[in-house]
Amino acid sequence: SSGINAEYGNIPSDFQAIQFVEPKYWCDISYYELNNRVGEAFHASENSLWIDGFTDPSNNRRFCLGQLTNINRTSQVEKCRKQIGKGIHLQYVQGEVHAVCLSDSSIFVQSQNCNQRNGWHPNTVCKIPTGCHLNIFNNTEFANLLSQSVGHGFEAVYQLARMCTFRIS
């Protein structure tokens, strides 16, 4: 035996497959002001989620930034926070994440998954005007990249973790 498993290509036969388990939350959101994280992470279990500048701590479908306090908040940050208003709507539908801008101001998204799909530089930031949306993540495309990376070892697979993070401002 050559030690190569024909079913999976060039993967050594002593590797073991690990069953994928769907996580309890499809999305974890951390809020930052400048370089400082503010508050606890929000864990989204519902497929539809609103992030806004209001206060409603009892709603598990809304991450309300208005309730978050920061003793080090600057006047610049306060000015930016006033622009959030109705914020954004994130929808997780059939393995895709869509961001819809509900704010009166445009939002800006950096998503390596979206950028790769569109042939853009990985660090491209997209402007989403009021009322518009953008597909910012696609599970099928990510799964294909993951499959292609497995044969290249741990580091190649680990590098894909960056594709699972996107920034919104």
Mean pLDDT: 88
Q: Radius of gyration over alpha carbons?
A: 19 Å
Strand elements, count: 12
> Secondary-structure element order, as H and E?
EEEEEEHEEEHEEHHE
Shape field: elongated
Category by helix and strand content:
alpha+beta
| Strand order across the largest sheet | 6-5-7-8-11
Largest sheet: 5 strands, mixed
Beta-strand level of the residues, as a percent range? 25-35%
Q: Which ranges are low-confidence, i.e. pLDDT below 50, for 5 or more consecutive residues? A: 1-6
* Fraction of residues in helix: 10-25%
Number of helices: 4
Gap between N and C termini: 54 Å
Write structural notes for this entry.
It is a single chain. 18% of the residues lie in helices and 34% in strands. The protein has 169 residues and is of the alpha+beta class. The strands form 4 sheets. The protein has a 5-stranded mixed beta sheet with strand order 6-5-7-8-11. A 3-stranded antiparallel beta sheet has the order 10-9-12. A two-stranded antiparallel sheet has the order 1-2. A hairpin with a 5-residue loop joins strand 1 (4-5) and strand 2 (11-12). The protein is elongated.
Q: Mind sketching the topology for me?
A:
Blueprint (H helix, E strand, L loop, with lengths): L3 E2 L5 E2 L14 E7 L2 E9 L3 E5 L9 E3 L10 H7 L6 E6 L2 E6 L5 E5 H6 L8 E3 L4 E6 H12 L3 H6 L6 E3 L1
Parallel strand pairs: 5-6
Antiparallel strand pairs: 1-2, 3-4, 5-7, 7-8, 8-11, 9-10, 9-12
